Task: inverse folding
C-alpha cells in the first residue's frame, strides 16, 4: 500500500482545539509543511503568542516558547540573538500583533530582526470571545462594538503589511488568504519564501494570513469564507507589499 | 585581573556579569543605571557577546525571556520606573522557570519620582511585583566589591534553582567609585539545561518553555513544586552580616549603602556607651528571619533604617515576632540620611530602655 497523504512531520500528533471551520488549522499545516520541505524542524524555535493559537506550542514538533500577550517578537529576538544561525518564527493574532504588541512588531521589523512572523488576521479577538480587534472593519459588529465599529470613537483598521513594508529592516511583507485552494497554495509559497529569506539572513519576514473566525463572526464555515472575500479583502488586499529578494526591489 | 581597579558600581556589575558568562544584555536607558548599558555596549562586542538596546523595558525583559529560554545567561538592568514595566516579564520568567539576572538601581518614586538614591521599591522587589505566586531572589550589595561578588553569585543561583535573581542597589551604589578586584570566576560548575529551547537537531524530543496550565490541579502542583525550590533557596542561600549583636540592646537593621551609614552611627553610639548593633541583610528575599529572630532573644529593641517610608520594617517585625519593640527611621524621595540623624534616633531609643 502506498502512502498518498500524510501529516507533516513538523506537526505534532495531537488533535487541534480549534473550532470547526476555523482556518488557524490550515495555516498550522502550511507552516509545518514548509518546515518539513526546508528541513528546518530540527533547526527551528517557534514562539507561541496569546490568542486562540496559544496552544500552538503543542502543535509544532520543533522547540516552542510561549510568550506573553504581544511580546512574541521581543521573545523571538532574544532566542534569535542567542542562536543567530537557528530559525525562529512567531505565530500571532491581530490583537497580539497590532494592539498590545505593536511596538514589539515595529521594532523587530525595523531592526531587520532575522525572524519570520506568521500573522493571523481574523478581524477579531477570537480567544476572549469576539471583541473588537485593531483590524476589525469599519461597521463590524463585535462583542465590544455592538453598534458596529464607528470611526468617530474607535478609529480605523490597521493594515499590517502596509505598515511593516515601510520599514527598511523588512525583507518580505506579503498578505495571503486561506479561503480557496489557489490562495492556500500561494499562502504556502509565501511562508516558504519567508523561511528561506530568514535562512539567507535577508531580514524581517512577515506573512499576513487572512483567516476566519466562524464562532465569533456568528457564521458557518462556508459563510465565513464568503464574508472574508466580500468584506476583508477590500480592506486588506492580497499581494506582495515588500520583497527584498525580488528583482528590482533590492 | 585580581589587582584592584577603580570602578563605578554600575560598571563593576556589568564587568562581573560578563565574567560570569553572561553573553546577552538587553537594556533601555534610565538614570541612574545607564552606565550598565553603556559599559555593556562597549564590552560585549569585545567578548563576542551581545548588547541590544530594546524599544522599551517591556521588550528588554521579554528578550531576556527569549534568550534565557535557549539556556543562555542573559541579563537586563534598569531603575524603578523601568522595573515597573518589567513586572509582566518577570512573572512570566518565574512562571516558566527561567534563570536570568535583573539589575535594579533604585531611585526615588512613585511615578517619575526623582533620580536620587532610594530603597522605596523593597515591596515591589520582595513581595511579588508581578502577578502570581512567585518570588525573586533579591540580593542587596553594600559595596562595589560586593556588587561584583553578588553578580557572580546571582547567575549561579539563577541557574541552580531556575529562578530570576534581582540585584537591588540604590543610585549611590551605582554611581560611586571604589577599588574592586575580580576574582577568577569558577566556570567548573555546570548546570542542567536539558530543558532549553535551542532546537532539537532532530536528536531529542521537543522542549517547551511555557507558563500556561489550563488545568488547575496541574498548575497548583507546579506552583507548589516551585515553592519547594523557594524553601530550599531560603534554607541554603539566605545571607546576612551582623556586627556587635552579641550584647546589643538596640539592633539596627539596614541594607545596601544605608547599612554603611547605619554602621557609622552604631560605632558612634558604642563610643557613647550605648550598646548598639547592626544586622545587614544581604538577601532581601529570602529575608534573614532566623538571624534576626536569634538576636531578638537578647536584644531590647530593633530599629529598621531605610531610604523609604518604611517597607523592610514589616519583615523585621515578622522576624522579631513581638519579642521586643521595632522602630523605624527613614528618609525618602532620594534623601540619604546622615549618621547623626540615625545616632539621634538611637539615643532617643536608648532613653526608653
Ligand atoms: C496582558 C494580557 N491582556 C489581555 C489578555 C487576554 N487576551 C487573551 S487572547 C486576547 C486576544 C487575542 O486576539 P488575537 O491576538 O486577535 O488572536 P485570536 O484569538 O483572534 O487568534 C486577549 C485580549 C491576556 N492574556 N494578557
Ligand atoms: S474562536 Fe475563532 S479564531 Fe478561535 S478557534 Fe474558534 S473560530 Fe478559530
Ligand atoms: Mg484575532
Result:
Amino acid at each position: 500500500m502506498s502512502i498518498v497523504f500524510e501529516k507533516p512531520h513538523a506537526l505534532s500528533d495531537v488533535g487541534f482545539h480549534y473550532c470547526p471551520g476555523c482556518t488557524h488549522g490550515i495555516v498550522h499545516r502550511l507552516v509545518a509543511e514548509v518546515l518539513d520541505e526546508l528541513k528546518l524542524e530540527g533547526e527551528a524555535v517557534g514562539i507561541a503568542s496569546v490568542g486562540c493559537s496559544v496552544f500552538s506550542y503543542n502543535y509544532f514538533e520543533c522547540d516552542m516558547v510561549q510568550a506573553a500577550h504581544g511580546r512574541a517578537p521581543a521573545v523571538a529576538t532574544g532566542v534569535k540573538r542567542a542562536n543567530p544561525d537557528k530559525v525562529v518564527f512567531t505565530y500571532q493574532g491581530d490583537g497580539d500583533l497590532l494592539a498590545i504588541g505593536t511596538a514589539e512588531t515595529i521594532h523587530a521589523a525595523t531592526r531587520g530582526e532575522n525572524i519570520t512572523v506568521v500573522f493571523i488576521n481574523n478581524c477579531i479577538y477570537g480567544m476572549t470571545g469576539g471583541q473588537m480587534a485593531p483590524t476589525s472593519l469599519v461597521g463590524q459588529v463585535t462583542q465590544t462594538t455592538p453598534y458596529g465599529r464607528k470611526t468617530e470613537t474607535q478609529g480605523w483598521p490597521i493594515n499590517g503589511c502596509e505598515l511593516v513594508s515601510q520599514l527598511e529592516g523588512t525583507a518580505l511583507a506579503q498578505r495571503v488568504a486561506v479561503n480557496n485552494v489557489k490562495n492556500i497554495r500561494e499562502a504556502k509559497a509565501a511562508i516558504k519564501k519567508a523561511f528561506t529569506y530568514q535562512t539567507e539572513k535577508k531580514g524581517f519576514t512577515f506573512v499576513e494570513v487572512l483567516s476566519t473566525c466562524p464562532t465569533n463572526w456568528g457564521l458557518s464555515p462556508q459563510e465565513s469564507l464568503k464574508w472574508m472575500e466580500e468584506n476583508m479583502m477590500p480592506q486588506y488586499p492580497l499581494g506582495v507589499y515588500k520583497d527584498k529578494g525580488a528583482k528590482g526591489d533590492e | 585581573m585580581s589587582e584592584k581597579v577603580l570602578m563605578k558600581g554600575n560598571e563593576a556589575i556589568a564587568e562581573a556579569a560578563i565574567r560570569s558568562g553572561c553573553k546577552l544584555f538587553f537594556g533601555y536607558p534610565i538614570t541612574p543605571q545607564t552606565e550598565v548599558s553603556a559599559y555593556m555596549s562597549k564590552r560585549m562586542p569585545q567578548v563576542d557577546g551581545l548588547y541590544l538596546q530594546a524599544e522599551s523595558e517591556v521588550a528588554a525583559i521579554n528578550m531576556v525571556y527569549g534568550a534565557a529560554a535557549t539556556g543562555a545567561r542573559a541579563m537586563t538592568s534598569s531603575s524603578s520606573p523601568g522595573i515597573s514595566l518589567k513586572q509582566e516579564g518577570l512573572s512570566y520568567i518565574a512562571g516558566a522557570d527561567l534563570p536570568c539576572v535583573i539589575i535594579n538601581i533604585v531611585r526615588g518614586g512613585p511615578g517619575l519620582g526623582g533620580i536620587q538614591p532610594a530603597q522605596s521599591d523593597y515591596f515591589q522587589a520582595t513581595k511579588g511585583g508581578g502577578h502570581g505566586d512567585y518570588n525573586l531572589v533579591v540580593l542587596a550589595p553594600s559595596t562595589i566589591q560586593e556588587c561584583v561578588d553578588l553578580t557572580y553569585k546571582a547567575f549561579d543561583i539563577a541557574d541552580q534553582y531556575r529562578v530570576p535573581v534581582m540585584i537591588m542597589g540604590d543610585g549611590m551604589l551605582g554611581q560611586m567609585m571604589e577599588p574592586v578586584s575580580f576574582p577568577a570566576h569558577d566556570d567548573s560548575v555546570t548546570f542542567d539545561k536539558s530543558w532549553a529551547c535551542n532546537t532539537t537537531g532532530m536528536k531529542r524530543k521537543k522542549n517547551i518553555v511555557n507558563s500556561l496550565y489550563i488545568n488547575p490541579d496541574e498548575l497548583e502542583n507546579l506552583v507548589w513544586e516551585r515553592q519547594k525550590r523557594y524553601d530550599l533557596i531560603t534554607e541554603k542561600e539566605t545571607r546576612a552580616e551582623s556586627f556587635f549583636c552579641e550584647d546589643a540592646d538596640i539592633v539596627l537593621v539596614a541594607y545596601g549603602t544605608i547599612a554603611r551609614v547605619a554602621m557609622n552611627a552604631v560605632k558612634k553610639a558604642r563610643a557613647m556607651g550605648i550598646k548598639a548593633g547592626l544586622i545587614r541583610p544581604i538577601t532581601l528575599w529570602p529575608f534573614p528571619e532566623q538571624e534576626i529572630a536569634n538576636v531578638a532573644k537578647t536584644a531590647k529593641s530593633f530599629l529598621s533604617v531605610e531610604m523609604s517610608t518604611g517597607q523592610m520594617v514589616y519583615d523585621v517585625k515578622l522576624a522579631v515576632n513581638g519579642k521586643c519593640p521595632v522602630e523605624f527611621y527613614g528618609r525618602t524621595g532620594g534623601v540619604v540620611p546622615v549618621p547623626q540623624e540615625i545616632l539621634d534616633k538611637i539615643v532617643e531609643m536608648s532613653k526608653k530602655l
In short: Residues 241-350 of chain B form a domain with the Rossmann fold fold (CATH 3.40.50.920). Residues A 18-19, 22, 24, 52, 122, 126-127, 213-216 surround iron/sulfur cluster (ligand 2) (CB under 6 Å).
